[in-house]
Amino acid sequence: MLSVALTIAFALVTSAFLLSFARLLRGPHAPDRILALDTLYINTIALLVLLGIQRGTPLYFEAALVIAMLGFASTVVLSKYL
Fold it and tell me: Which of 2, 15, 42, 56 is deepest in the core (most CB within 10 A)?
């Protein structure tokens, strides 16, 4: 049951990642691109957490935590820039 749920979650988060990446490339304005970049960070964190659950190692959770901190800082800096 867990493997089926993980497969579905991987597919959905990957599709959300690809849609966010398309918005990042296509976004008509800078705030749209910043929002898409923030969403990419969140999707990356979700993928790392899912991978950590699948593999059963805590290393992926620590990597997700580092990406969350860097993503928050970069979003604040980019928003301040605008």
Answer: 42
Residue 78 has pLDDT above 90, yes or no: no
Give the integer Cα–Cα distance in Å for 59 and 82: 35
**Distance from C-alpha of 67 to C-alpha of 64, rounded to nearest angstrom:** 5
Give the span between the Cα atoms of 82 and 75, in whole angstroms.
Answer: 11
The stretch 37-57 carries a mean pLDDT of 94
3-class state of residue 27 by DSSP: coil
pLDDT on residue 9: 96
pLDDT tens sequence across 9-21 = 999 999 999 999 9
Say which DSSP state 28 is in: S
Q: Which residue, 79, 10, 81, is CA-closest to 38?
A: 79
